[in-house]
Amino acid sequence: xxxxxxxxxxxxxxxxxxxxxxxxxxxxxxxxxxxxxxxxxxxxxxxxxxxxxxxxxxxxxxxxxxxxxxx
Length: 71
Prior knowledge:
Layout: E1 13-20, E2 26-32, E3 36-42, H1 44-70
Antiparallel strand pairs: 1-2, 2-3
């Protein structure tokens, strides 16, 4: 997990889609409840970083759910 302290707003993702440009560039579009669609271009390095962060988030959510069912 990152130690950087960044001020940010948490948004709720309601939909996602991969966007491919004719020149081969790729982007991820996230539809959010609070601010509508947000798209950002990604490269292989960004994709690898997103995978790592999504894995950590998934593990945390699964662990939290397991703990809730035990209580």
